[in-house]
């Protein structure tokens, strides 16, 4: 219930988060939240504009005594990832997020929470509304479509922003100060194939992989989480090798930036192999579950008889498909040689759709090094082209190169240490795609930094925001605003 959320401290932030989460805001369908934000700025009597692509900018003058400080931009994105559990009835296009408090965490009932990046948006809204929080000249930049292409950041023209410092509020660990991020590129393989009539002697099976955690395909790619598309392919490959299994349909994964949690396949096998197939699949399923028991305790693999499909995939195409998905890298490709424990380059096999004579495989490749990103993208392209697929690169966006000599970083580190009993923050680049790299193309002189509260399970229905961490983060924000350096 929103009432228990609104009672949390800091109330200024949580109330704005509750207001925001009442507005549907899927990526590429942000019209309502854009209007919501414009109405908010105008209600406060502040200069409010919408640019050509839908980004909203709200300007607020410096508070008394802060006029000589450097002007700042506070930035967060308006859209959120929409994921829900299979048994959750929810319409993201019309419903607001149903939230509740569970101990020290705010969660949503069966859906993503929208803390990524709603807590950042709510932070900025609370500061814009306040008449007591000290800050320099402030531009609030609310971008659109961060989660499915970063088109808001890409479409923001140079010269529109006047700030010297940009505070990006899209980091998900409260002890981390972000100074760099990965770029990304979508790798999509497609091809058509001939369907064959299913022979009468075959019977149908439905194979279901579910119960995986899923999660952020950048920040969690190194954790060893299960990928439903890879696990499904393992089952299909084995079924074909041992029993001549034939594929009719596959529907695996969902969003490009989410580790796939579920996959379903409709297949056919010779009726004579029914008992042996069921036994083999059960044995393999138990083996896989044992391998993943630590990271994926809720993994389920269900093999059940179903109506025999009318059509199956051409045999030669099927062999190439299963081998290419087996060969395609999923996970970490290279660790950074320069920054300890940072994933440099990775890939997520995010989506596999096989139906009605058409194959589509979608991957998101990330890297903080442009040449390494292209190297892995070409590796995937070669893998899928060997099976007759056409491969397209799209949605290419740059990374954000770390600047360890940043002026705002020099301000923030001692503030963090003072507020946290001498504890040092983790100054690092991340393997997520932040908008700073894109914004920096048109604003190369702007000093940028990223930080935020603890958010776990982003991009999945397990997403949750820590209340105590949000309180810690809020104090940090207020101290930063009060200590922005003076103009040169």
Care to give the gist of this entry?
By secondary structure, this protein is an alpha+beta fold. It contains twelve helices and 23 strands.
Note the main attributes of this structure.
alpha+beta, Aminopeptidase, Alpha-Beta Plaits, 30% helix, 488 residues, 9-stranded antiparallel sheet
Describe this structure in words.
- With 488 residues, the protein is α+β, with helices and mostly antiparallel strands.
- It folds into two domains: 2-181 and 400-482, Zn peptidases (Aminopeptidase, 3-Layer(aba) Sandwich); 185-397, Alpha-Beta Plaits (2-Layer Sandwich), CATH 3.30.70.360.
- It is built from twelve helices and 23 strands.
- The protein has helices at residues 2-6, 11-21, 31-43, 115-129, 151-155, 228-243, 274-291, 315-327, 370-385, 407-419, 436-442, 467-482, and strands spanning 47-50, 56-60, 72-77, 99-102, 105-108, 138-143, 165-168, 176-180, 183-192, 195-197, 202-210, 246-253, 263-270, 300-306, 311-313, 331-335, 343-355, 358-367, 390-397, 426-429, 447-450, 455-456, 464-466.
- The strands form five sheets. Strands 9, 11, 12, 13, 14, 16, 17, 18 and 19 form a nine-stranded antiparallel β-sheet that branches. A six-stranded mixed β-sheet has the order 1-2-6-3-7-21, with helices on one face.
- Strand 1 and strand 2 (56-60) form a beta hairpin.
- Helix 2 (11-21) packs across helix 4, helix 6 (228-243) crosses helix 8 and helix 10 crosses helix 12 (467-482).
- It starts with a helix and ends in a 6-residue tail after the last helix.
- The model has no long low-confidence stretch (mean pLDDT 95).
- Residues 208-294 form the Peptidase M20 dimerisation domain.
- InterPro entries: Peptidase_M20 (IPR002933), Peptidase_M20_dimer (IPR011650), Peptidase_M20C (IPR001160).
